[in-house]
Amino acid sequence: MSAATLLRDVFGFDAYRPGQQEIVEAVVDGRNTLAIMPTGGGKSLCFQLPALVRDGVTVVISPLIALMRDQVRGLREAGVEAGALTSGNTEEETEAVWDALAAGTLKLLYMAPERLASGGTITMLRRAGVSMIAVDEAHCVSQWGHDFRPDYLRIGELRETLDVPLAAFTATADAETQEEIIRKLFDGQQPATFLRGFDRPNIHLAFAVKDGPRAQILNFANVRKGQSGIVYCGTRAKTETLAQALRETGHVACHYHGGMDAQDRRDVERRFQQEDGLIVVATVAFGMGIDKPDIRWVAHADLPKSIEAYYQEIGRAGRDGSPAETLTLFGPDDIRYRRQQIDEGIAPPERRAADHTRLNALLGLAEALKCRRQNLLRYFGEDPEPCGKCDLCDKPADVFDGTTPVRMALSAALRTEEWFGAGHLIDILLGNETDKIRQRGHASLPTYGVGKDYDRRQWQAIFRQMMGHDLIRPDPARHGALRMTDAALPILKGEASIELRRDTIRAAKGLGPKVRQMVSEEDAPLLSALKAKRRFLAEQAGVPAYIIFNDRTLIEMAETRPRTLDDMARVGGVGAKKLDSYGNDFLSVIAGEVEDTHPARRKLAGRSEGQLYDRLLAVQSDLQRGPHGADKPMSLSASMLAKVAQLRQADRDGITRLIGERHAERFGDAFLEILAEA
């Protein structure tokens, strides 16, 4: 039967959606295929329809049980023999799948990627007459993506073992992720690639600077009462408190996060699929498997991780093609938190740099001066006209020539050799006499006090916009100090101008109290770097992170910035054993290269005997060839010097007994003089 006939008779459609037909034809022809289509663009049909046209069984690798069960249910309702092998199956369901495979009647077999870890699965698929593999949510193969699933890495091997074509589908994949998919699923061989437009014109886009974020979310939900919606939050705790606040204002709302019992999570998923008007307040653990067509709005109470994450999360709204709305709140604390997440991660430096670039793209969208949809789609390689369906098209931004304050900020960064964060640079611009400014002599800089036309919160908004325009970036190698990008140079030199949003700078005066930070803004990047080192050491040792050092100890390190083992030993929580085991590791994070210290000296770190050891070592060096420099070289071992440093009530006889007559003759008097002064 032809694809066109099956499209009408089985799926009930008289025509394909835009872009579907050529993908279906490529998959039917058995070509390896990569299709990148917007969420709600009908990608499931692009592998379900070819599966019916082709002989044999199509294996569908999908990441979520709920999504698989929904698709299997829908196919069976349409008269298609489909089944799923999942951990959620009953014995009867699994038995029915095996029977259908044995009878040769099964057309689509859904399974999670984790099932590929079993050798028995591969053997079963060989016998089953598999003719094609379809991979849903193919971006899960990206090791550094926000939805990475390790078992997706087995799919390329499965394709080679079965020697069948593979069709991969995803709604979100930038150029880097596309390359990763091709490398890992297609062994680097270019598949037939279809890039369908990323635009979802029925979704209205809006961003707002946080100004009482709970009230902002409640107001957004109140004018959409009775509509199904999702609120994404950055923390589990916030999902619970915000869901409670929504219930108190008359909404039907529940929370969802990864820390909940599995059955409780399934209950929320079921309710959301079945109930009209339910609001789910969730972390990003919710949504990838939700195929609910009539979600009318999505709000972000906190800034998403990246522009891809944002696109995927808002894409859950309006899959039925009817109008849907979004709101994303953001503020300086969000940006700092997201930067910290990247810097504390275990990814290699080049990946962290790529993640900062993705976050910068999202900040650019948040700080956009003109049509947001243009900004979003340009990131994905498209060049659309203004959309007329975003907040900036509805009400153009109030902009002004921000070249002068931006040049002031860039000059302050340049004159301090790009070694400081926004907090210290703002103090310079405002002319504040802080201890740090006095210690570093920064009150003498030409930029000191030139920025008094703006207050601190307004300067924070200016710096936030500068990051959004990618003029400055935190440098992880300098613990988050702001460094200029190439894009900033023409502005600094007076060769280019820049517009900023006056409305968000003016609104900055009314922002609520700042979230309490564990450390000051200046010390936060170093604390992130210390936590990253702690995580690495903990993973190597197979112990919880706090076993290495607790947070309080790392905070003290970040604030006092010890430069030597002696300094480190004075930090609370750093005992002798931990100093010996981890001292140099953490010093290298704080101070860079660390000189190797003899174990005997390391044991004295932080004690008065350590300073005695250093003085004894210096005297020994002076007298190594005798008082006149002409005698035969002589010295004591480090261990022996440490014993001298620890002598109590030292006298000539005691020194001689310890180091021997010959050494006492050369060093005894000088050593006794140092010990007497202690």
Describe the structure in brief.
This protein is α/β, with parallel strands linked by helices and 678 residues long.
Fold and architecture overview:
With 678 residues, the chain is an alpha/beta fold. The protein folds into five domains: 193 residues, P-loop containing nucleotide triphosphate hydrolases (Rossmann fold); 187 residues, Rossmann fold (3-Layer(aba) Sandwich); 112 residues, Arc Repressor Mutant, subunit A (Orthogonal Bundle), CATH 1.10.10.10; 73 residues, HRDC domain (DNA polymerase, domain 1), CATH 1.10.150.80; 70 residues. The chain is 47% helix and 11% strand. It contains 32 helices and 18 strands. It has a seven-stranded parallel beta sheet with strand order 3-4-2-5-6-1-7, with helices on both faces. Helix 18 packs across helix 20. 42% of the residues are buried. About 1% of the residues have low confidence.
Oligomer: single chain
Shape: globular
How many β-strands, per DSSP? 18
- Please give the CATH architecture of the largest domain: 3-Layer(aba) Sandwich
Mean pLDDT across residues: 86
- Report on the biggest sheet: 7 strands, parallel
Provide tags for this entry.
678 residues; 18 strands; alpha/beta; seven-stranded parallel beta sheet; Rossmann fold; Arc Repressor Mutant, subunit A; single chain
